[in-house]
Specification:
143 residues, alpha+beta, Multidrug-efflux Transporter Regulator, Chain: A, Domain 2, OB fold (Dihydrolipoamide Acetyltransferase, E2P), four-stranded antiparallel sheet, 5 helices, 7 strands, 32% strand
């Protein structure tokens, strides 16, 4: 079972360590103490992160098969004659897209505009810290 320190849990959730400790005190999260270090279960933390995620409303009114939609604000556009780099801030995530400068003009993309980044990929790379690979895991925590 992956155990995550309170300070790291706070960072993942975008809150203070004090907030995580209050959630432990009120039963929202359960904690264990080992060698004086307070930590929470990684699976429980992931479920809390998903439940408490604040997603901006999607301004589009179309149905689409892509599930990875990130609503955010355009924070930068760098263009040349042919291609543009568009940067969005979608909550805590920075998303960068390369597209034609013609598309940028046609869509009215400029800093401050609300936009939706849609990711439809067959190749997504996932990595974990090396410590997670070295620590033995029980079958229950591999779910």
């Amino acid at each position: 079972m992956a155990q995550i320190r309170v300070r790291d849990a706070a960072q993942f959730l975008g809150v203070s360590s004090d907030t995580v400790r209050r959630w432990i005190d009120d039963g929202t999260l359960h904690a264990t103490r080992s060698s004086g270090v307070l930590s929470v279960d990684g699976l429980e933390l992931a479920q809390l992160a998903r439940d408490r995620a604040v997603l901006p409303s999607d301004p589009s009114s179309v149905a689409i098969s892509a599930r990875n939609r990130f609503v955010g604000l355009v924070t930068g556009v760098v263009s040349d004659r042919v291609m543009s780099q568009v940067e969005l801030q979608c909550g805590p995530h920075r998303v960068v897209s390369l597209m034609s400068t013609e598309a940028v003009r046609e869509l009215g993309i400029e800093p401050g505009v609300v936009a939706v980044a849609i990711v439809k990929a067959t190749n997504v790379i996932v990595e974990t810290p090396i410590e997670a690979i070295l620590e033995p895991r029980s079958p229950r925590s591999a779910r």
